Amino acid sequence: MAGIKTTRRERIKKGIRKHLAGSTERPRLSVFRSNKGIYAQVIDDTTGKTLASASSLSKDFVAAGNKVEQSKAVGKLVAEKAVAAGISKVVFDRNGYLYHGRVKSLAEGAREGGLDF
């Protein structure tokens, strides 16, 4: 059974996704946060394909610093991959999480990496 926090986040997530969808010209930058790591995907919702992704637990990521610093590095990494794929504008999907801490740090890193949202 899902916990109270998970149920609350799922409800908030549905409300966000009502107003937010990734298109071919502006894909969706989706964030997932776990206790151990943070994950980011650039998704084209019209085709249902992931165009770029990065994670703090992936093999090409070198972990350094605390979780907030790692989140910023993941944001920069996903931005580099997206720019290499020809994507410069995205819509940010915080996925039900508060725009604070690790989620905010990932967004700032993605902006520094060259994404516009």
UniProtKB/TrEMBL annotation:
Purpose of the protein: This is one of the proteins that bind and probably mediate the attachment of the 5S RNA into the large ribosomal subunit, where it forms part of the central protuberance.
Organism taxonomic ancestry: Bacteria, Pseudomonadati, Bacteroidota, Sphingobacteriia, Sphingobacteriales
Protein name: Large ribosomal subunit protein uL18
Entry GO terms, CC: cytosolic large ribosomal subunit
Superkingdom of source: Bacteria
Organism for this UniProt entry: Sphingobacterium yanglingense
NCBIfam families: L18_bact (TIGR00060)
Assembly description: Part of the 50S ribosomal subunit; part of the 5S rRNA/L5/L18/L25 subcomplex. Contacts the 5S and 23S rRNAs.
MF-aspect GO terms: 5S rRNA binding; structural constituent of ribosome
Family: Belongs to the universal ribosomal protein uL18 family.
Pfam families tied to this protein: Ribosomal_L18p (PF00861)
HAMAP family given in the database record: Ribosomal_uL18_B
One GO term (biological process): translation
Gene name linked to the record: rplR
Keywords on record: Ribonucleoprotein, Ribosomal protein, RNA-binding, rRNA-binding
